[in-house]
């Protein structure tokens, strides 16, 4: 059985992009991820 962790994947991508000084991160979109991103931005 394959498990996926979309929130963990999103956080890992943001963390890796930040470590490499990228200005943007491309992610598969969802309303839940969008709300988490807004909270992290604050």
Protein model, in words:
- This protein has 42 residues and is mainly alpha-helical.
- It is 60% helix and 0% strand.
- The longest helix has 14 residues.
- Secondary structure class reads mainly alpha
> Gyration radius, to the nearest Å?
11 Å
Question: How many E-type strands?
Answer: 0
Poorly predicted tracts of residues: none
Q: How far is the N terminus from the C terminus?
A: 37 Å
Percentage beta strand: under 5%
Helix content: 55-70%
Average residue pLDDT: 88
Give the biggest beta sheet: none
Q: What is the ordering of alpha helices and beta strands? A: HH
Distinct helical segment count:
2
Shape: globular
Write the layout of secondary structure elements.
Layout: H1 6-19, H2 31-41
């Amino acid at each position: 059985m394959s498990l996926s962790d979309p929130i963990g994947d999103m956080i890992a991508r943001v963390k890796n992009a930040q470590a490499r000084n990228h200005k943007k991160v491309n992610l598969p979109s969802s309303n839940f991820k969008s709300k988490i991103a807004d909270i992290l931005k604050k």
